[in-house]
Amino acid sequence: MRSGLAAAGSIPLGRKLLLLNWPLVLLLCAICGVGVVMLYSAGHGSWEPWAARHLARFGAALALMFAVALVDIRFWLRHAYTVYGTTLLLLIAVEVAGFAGMGARRWLDLGMLQLQPSELMKIALVLALARHFCDASIERIRRSSALIAPLLLAGAPAALVLRQPDLGTAIMLLMGAAAVLFVVGVPLWKFAAAGLLLGAALPALWFLLEAYQRRRILIFFHPESDPLGAGYHILQAMIALGSGGVSGKGYLHGTQSHLNFLPERQTDFIFTMLAEEFGLIGGLGLLLLFCILFVYSAAISLRIRNQFGRVLGLGIAVTVALYGFINIAMVMGLVPVVGVPLPLISYGGTVMLSVMAGFGLLLSASIHRDVEVGRAADLGAF
After folding, report:
1. Which one, 89, 156, 275, 347, has least CB within 10 Å?
2. Taking the CB of residue 219, how many other CB atoms lie within 10 A of it?
C-alpha cells in the first residue's frame, strides 16, 4: 500500500488541474448565475444590496473550492476529525458569545465576517463520518455497536444546534448522517426501527419544542388560521407560486416580490420569486439543474475507488440535495417553514462557503479517485 500511495502522491499540479471535473464546475457556476439574476430582481433591478455581494462571495467561494480540491485527499482524511472538532468548538462558542438574529442565537461575529457554524457542520459531519467508515468492512458496519460512534458524532452538534434553537438545521444534520449510514451499508431494518422509535417518541418530543416551533407545525396544516401572523410567509409564497402560471409574469415583474408582500425573498423564499417571474417552466428548469447536479455528483462519487472518497462524495451530494429539496418543499407548503436556504441561489455567505467547500472535497476525491486510502496512521507525511 505504501508504494501505491507514494506513486499517487506524485501527481503534479498541472495534472490535477486536468483531472479536475470542469463540467461540475460549470454546472455550479450556472446555478449561481441563476441566483445572481434573481437577487438582481429582488433588489428591484439593482446590483445592490444583494446581487453584487452574492457574485463576489461566489468568486471567493470558487477560489476556496479550487484550493480544497487540489489538496491531496489523504490530507483531508488525516485531518477530518480536526475539522469536525474545530467546527464543534465554534458551535459551543455560539452558546457563549454568539449573537441573536431572527429569534435564534446562530452566528459568531468575526469582524468582517458573520459566521454560522451550524452550516459548516453539515459538511464537517459528512467528512468525519466518511473518515470513520473509511476502511470499515461490511461485517463491522452491520454490527449494532458500530453505530455508537456515528450517532455520537451526529448527536452532539444536533443537540447544540437545537439549543440555538434551529430545528431545521438539526434535522438536516441528522438526515445527512442517516444518508451516510445508508451509503456505507447499514441494514434497512435499523432505519425502520429508528423510524418506529421516533414515531413512538413524538408525543414527548412535541412538548420539548419551543412554542414558536409548535406554532409553525400547527400553521403548516392550517396556514389560513393566522393569515397575518404565523401563516403569512407560506400564504404569500403560495400566492406567488400560483400567480406565476405556466410562463410567469416576466422578469422584474413579480408583483408579490416587488410590492414587498413576499417575505425573505432574497433568502429562504427566493424560489417563489423565480416561479412568479418565470412560471412553472422556470421552476422546473431550476429543479432540473439541481437534479443534474445531484445525479452527476453521485456518478462522480461512484467512480471513486477508495471508500473514504466515495462515501465523502455521496454524502456531499446528498447534503446539497437535502438543501434544495427541503427549501423548495417548504415554500410549496409541503413541509413546515424551517428556514433552510436554497444553495447557491439564496443570499448568504456561510452557506455559500460551506457548499463550495463541500464540492471542493468531492472534486479532491475525484482527482485522487485511484489512490489507496487507509487509516491516517498509514498516510506518512500527509
Report:
1. 89
2. 21
DSSP state of 336: -
Residue 216: φ, ψ to 5° = -60, -40
- The sign of the torsion formed by the CA atoms of 256, 258, 259, 264 equals positive
Before 165, cis peptide (omega within 30)?
yes
| Distance of alpha carbon 131 from alpha carbon 106, whole angstroms | 27
Q: Which residues contact 358 (CB under 8 A, 6 or more apart)?
A: 122, 123, 126, 316, 319, 320
What pLDDT tens digit does each residue of the chain (382 aa) get? 343 443 444 678 888 988 999 999 999 999 999 999 999 999 999 999 999 999 999 999 999 999 999 999 999 999 999 999 999 999 999 988 877 666 667 878 777 778 889 999 999 999 999 999 988 888 888 888 888 999 999 999 999 998 888 888 898 899 999 999 998 989 889 889 988 998 888 888 888 777 777 888 888 888 887 777 778 888 888 888 888 899 999 999 988 888 888 888 898 899 999 999 999 999 999 999 999 999 999 999 999 999 999 999 999 999 999 989 999 998 888 888 887 899 999 998 889 999 999 999 999 999 999 887 765 444 444 4
Please name the helix (run of DSSP H) or strand (run of DSSP E) that holds residue 25, with its range, or none. helix 22-42
Other beta carbons within 10 Å of 49: 13
Query: How would you classify the pairing of strands 104-109 and 99-101?
Result: antiparallel
Listed in sequence order, the residues at least 6 apart from 82 whose beta carbon sits closer than 8 Å to its beta carbon are none
3-state secondary structure of 165: coil
Distance CA 183, CA 72 (A): 23
Q: How many residues are there in the chain?
A: 382
Indicate the pTM of the whole model: 0.90
